Amino acid sequence: MSIGRTSDADASAGTPADGADPHRWWALVVIALAQLMVVLDATIVNIALPSAQHALHMSDGNRQWVVTAYTLAFGGLLLLGGRVADLVGRKRTFITGLVGFAVASALGGAATGSGMLFGARALQGVFAALLAPSALSLLTTAFTDPRERGKAFGIYGALAGSGSAIGFIVGGLLTEYLNWRWCLYVNVPIAIATVLGACALLHDRPGSADAHLDVPGALLGCGGLVAVVYGFSEAEPRGWTDPLVLALFGTGAALLLAFVRWQRRAPSPLLPLHIVRDRDRAGCFLTMALAVIGMFGLFLFMTYYLQVILGYSPVRAGLAFLPMTAAIITGSTQISARLLRRVPPRALMVPGMLLAASGLLLLTRMTVHSSYTGEILPALLLLGLGMGLTFMPVFATATAGVAPRDSGVTSATVNTAQQVGGSIGTALLNTIATTSGAAYVTAHLHRPAQRATVVPAGVVHGYTVAIWWAAGVMVLAAVTAGLMVTAKAPENAAGADAPVPESVA
Fold this sequence. Notes:
Growth Hormone, Chain: A
C-alpha cells in the first residue's frame, strides 16, 4: 500500500513530504506488541493461579493478591505514568517501562515465596503504568492522517480488546506444558525484542524540560484510585458493608474530589480538566469503563465454569476463548476500521454494546449441562464482535484532536478507565455471583445426599445472576455512548485531514 509520496530531498532525509514517520507501520508493530504484553498479563496468570498457589503455599485468602497487586498498581498509577510520558518523552518512558516490566517479570517467575510474587506483580503494574500510556500516545502522534489512523487504531483496539482472552490461551498452554512460572518468564524475550525495535523504529520529540510534575495531584489522584480499586477488591472476601471496605470507598471518594478541586488551580496539572470536559472524550472514557466491567466479570465466570463445571483442562479452557478473540479482531479491524471514516463513532459503539449485551443474555440460560458449541460459543461470538466494534472507535475518538503535550495523559485516562473498570467488574460481579449461589444452595439443599447436584447448580445459578447484571451494564454503556458521544465521522468533520493540532485551546 502506498502511503504518501516523497520528494527526492525528503527521501534522502528519510522523512515523507507530509511529515509522517516513514517507519510508522513498523513502529505500530512494536507498539502493539508492547500493549499486548501489558494487557494479557492481567489475565495470563489466572489459569496458572492454582498451580502457583500450591507451589508457594498461599492461603485462599491471599491468593487474590497475585491478580490484585498488578491491577492496583497499574490502575492507580496510570495517570502519573501518562504525565511522566509527556514531561520526559514518550520513547524514553516507553523503553524504561519495557525494561522494568521485563525485570519484574523475571523476579516473579523466580519467586520463592508468596510475598516475593506479590511484590513482583505490583512492580509489573508500576512499569505497565509507564508503558501503556506512552505506547498509545506514540501511536497517536505517529498516525495523523484520518485513514491511516483508522487502520492503526483498528489493530491497536483489536489487541487491547482481545489481549485478555489471549492471556487465557497462553496461560493454559504454558501452565499445562511447561510451568506456571513461564506465565511470567514469557514477558522477558517479548520485552527484549520490543526494546530493540523501539530503539530502531520509534521517534519522538523530547519532553518539556521546563515543565514540573504535579506532585500533590499525583498523590491525590493515584491515592484515590488505589483506594477505590482496593475497596472493590476487598468487597469480595469481606462484604460490601465491612468497615474497611466502606472506609476505603469514603477515602477514595474524598481524595478524588480533592484531586479535581486541586486540578482547577494547579500550575501544572496532572490531568488538565479540559481533557475530561470534552463531551465526546468523557463519553468514551465512561463507555470503556462500563464495557470492561461486563467483559472482565465474564472472563472470571467462564474460566471457572469451563474448568470446574464442564471439566476442561487449562489448555482446552484457554482455547475456548479463541473464537471470541477472533470476533474481537474481526469487529475491530474489518468493520470498525473500515466504517469509522464514514459514520459517527456512536454508530459503531451503540450497536457494539447492544451486540455484547445480547451475547451475555444468551449466557444467562446456561446450566450445569450446557453444550459449548450449541450455547456458549454463539454467546462468545456475539460478545466478541460487539467489543470489537466498540474498542476501536473509543480509542480513536478519545485521543483525537489532543495536543501532543497532553497525548500521554489522555492515553493514560483511556487505559485507567479500562483497568479500573476491569477491577470493579471482577469484584462486583463475583460478589453478586457468590452471594446468589450461596442463597440458592441454602434454599435447595435439604439432605446431604443432594450436595453433589445442588452445589454445582448453585454455582452456575450465581454466574447467571451476575451475567444478568453484566448485560445491564452493557446496555448502560450503549446508552452512554448514544447520549454523550456526538462526534461526527472524521471524513465529514471540519479539518479532518489536518494533522493533530498543537493545542486544543
